[in-house]
Amino acid sequence: MDGVTSHPTDLTGTGLSAAWVDELVERTLTEDLTGGPPLPSAPDVAVGYDVTSAATVPGTQFGTADLVARADGVLAGLPVAARVFRRLAPGATLTASATDGDRVRRGDVLLTVRGPVRALLAAERSALNIASRASGIATHTRAWADAIAGTGATVLDTRKTTPGLRPLEKYAVRCGGGSNKRMGLYDVAMVKDNHVTAAGSVAAAVAMVRERAPRVPVQVECDTVAQVTEAVEAGADFLLLDNMTPDQLRQAVAAVGDRDVELEATGGLTLAVAREYAETGVDFLSVGALTHSSPILDLALDLRVG
């Protein structure tokens, strides 16, 4: 761990909007605190607070909670998790002992929060869910980044993200040493087979995009080396090389030559073959599994009362 800060809720440098993060925190807490109707077994208990903590923890009790790694990995989402505690305990003291992007070890204390125990316990699961999910993605991404280190290729994510969590998940990819592909359908024109069918040809599809969205980069999906040549001649900025073998990728790289066209390999990639594919000369490997299949990083909250 390399970072120590007394301002762990600072989003500077994350690329995350404070308004978006605050909305995420609100939605996340709502699931736990105001997500359902009054319980039939306790109709007199108002929905909107942690019923267990309200019953067992004195309202005046203060404590200190440590956010702790239960496994080795790469940290991400700590400023977002910290804002969960800030939301329920505005006067809490938060001190971070790690920074997003750090490699952490089992047993490391990542964040220490001192405040009302009821608030700390009410915030616990929401904070852990956010940081565990983001850190799991960062950890998985780091494994890919390490696997292809020195090849000149970069690992990319895709749009296969959890609905509503795309900014956080793509941020986590960056924390793990990867890079982001397009954020949505608006920032890159991805010409795929269905677009070609509708437009009539690759050249026609690229020309239509150039005419109607001249400032948007154009990427074309290619399944064969022949399609690579067609897409380059049509004026594509970069190519998505889908389900090609390493030999086909090398042929695609040779076909592009020294033209200013970036190449991205995708489809069926695994860590076991990552380096072989990266060494073909492509610029990127895109891996949907970074965001749709990463296991969480096990994190926990350890409380000390008093």
Write the layout of secondary structure elements.
Blueprint: H1 18-33, H2 51-56, E1 62-69, E2 73-74, H3 78-88, E3 93-96, E4 103-104, E5 109-116, H4 117-147, E6 154-156, H5 166-175, E7 189-191, H6 193-199, H7 202-212, E8 218-222, H8 225-234, E9 238-242, H9 246-256, E10 262-266, H10 271-278, E11 284-286, H11 289-292, E12 299-305
Parallel strand pairs: 6-11, 7-8, 8-9, 9-10, 10-11
Antiparallel strand pairs: 1-5, 1-12, 2-4, 3-5
Helix pairs in contact: 1-3, 3-4, 4-5, 6-7, 7-8, 8-9
Domain Quinolinate phosphoribosyl transferase C-terminal: 137-302
GO molecular function, one term: nicotinate-nucleotide diphosphorylase (carboxylating) activity
Subunit structure: Hexamer formed by 3 homodimers.
The class by helix and strand makeup works out as alpha/beta
The name CATH uses for the topology of the largest domain is: TIM Barrel
* Mean pLDDT across every amino acid position: 93
Shape category: elongated
Radius of gyration: 23 Å
Side-by-side strand order of the widest sheet: 6-11-10-9-8-7
Number of domains: 2
**Main sheet attributes: strand count, strand direction, barrel closure:** 6 strands, parallel
* CATH homologous superfamily descriptor of the largest domain: Aldolase class I
Number of strands: 12
Distance between the termini: 28 Å
User: What share of the residues lie within helices?
Assistant: 40-55%
Supply the CATH class of the largest domain: Alpha Beta
**Which architecture of the largest domain does the CATH hierarchy give at level 2?**
Alpha-Beta Barrel
Beta-strand percentage range: 15-25%
Q: Name the helix and strand elements from N-terminus to C-terminus, one letter apiece.
A: HHEEHEEEHEHEHHEHEHEHEHE
Low-confidence runs of at least 5 consecutive residues: none
Helices, by number, come to 11
